[in-house]
Design a protein that fits this description.
Blueprint (H helix, E strand, L loop, with lengths): L1 E4 L15 E4 L10 H10 L4 E4 L16 E6 L5 H4 L3 H10 L5 E5 L8 E2 L4 H15 L6 H21 L7 H12 L7 H4 L2 H8 L7 H11 L11
Parallel strand pairs: 1-2, 1-3, 3-4, 4-5
Antiparallel strand pairs: 5-6
């Protein structure tokens, strides 16, 4: 595979992809090119994939009509010592990446996942399982929080395209489930810390936090994700 490394990656990083034809942006004559200009130049030059640390590319960016694949490397810094632990993950991503697809590769986390645009029901279900794992944790690291937010965005994008009907808001869903189960609002008091807080949630004055969504999911026996706003 013909790889292009952007200007922010160390020159020597290319040596760790010996099974591929890896070039730096400067070597390819693309020094100074950014964003769309760089992507267009790389495609015209016949590159198969771009390795970049630029996180400015929207995670939901659909490049299905393009040929160039993109791997966004999300490491602590762009120093070689922070990048090397990700080489194996990058190589694995290169084996499975589809033409025109964008994948984010994260530095080592407890979450074993590479995030990509969701296009199938299986990928959607896998992402939901990862979201549930993250939601069940008492605290998230900064990197895990970023994974969680990205997965929420990706699943939301997939659902809005696959199920274009208007979705119920979390409050509407709670009211519906209470009615279906014949339960009064006060049964949710232990979840929100009192009947006053329940009333504030149902009137849109208080947001539903992740731990509360998990408890609501258990109470109503549904996916906790449905109680969170997808932005």
């Amino acid at each position: 595979m013909k790889l292009l490394l952007d200007e922010c990656l160390p020159i020597d990083f290319r040596h760790h992809f010996s099974d591929h034809e890896a070039h730096t942006a400067e070597w390819a004559g693309f020094k100074g090119k950014k964003n769309g200009e760089l992507l267009s130049a790389a495609e015209m030059a016949g590159y198969d994939a771009l390795l970049t640390v630029d996180q400015g590319i929207p995670p939901q960016f659909d490049r299905s009509t393009k040929k160039l694949s993109i791997i966004v490397i999300r490491s602590r810094t762009n120093q070689i010592e922070d990048l090397l632990p990700l080489v194996v993950s990058i190589l694995n991503a290169l084996e499975s990446i589809r033409r025109g697809e964008m994948i984010s590769v994260w530095r080592r986390l407890e979450v074993n996942i590479s995030t990509r645009v969701i296009r199938t029901k299986t990928e959607h279900q896998r992402a939901l399982r990862e979201i549930e794992k993250l939601m069940s944790r008492p605290r998230l690291s900064r990197e895990e929080r970023e994974v969680y937010e990205l997965l929420m965005q990706l699943t939301g994008d997939y659902e809005s395209k696959t199920f274009p009907r208007q979705r119920s808001t979390p409050v509407e869903l709670i009211e519906f489930l209470l009615e279906q189960n014949g339960q009064p609002q006060k049964v949710l008091a232990p979840i929100f810390g009192g009947e006053t807080h329940v009333s504030e949630v149902l009137h849109g004055k208080r947001t539903i936090r992740i731990p509360q969504a998990v408890k609501l999911g258990k109470h109503f026996n549904v996916d906790p994700v449905v109680f969170l706003e997808l932005r």
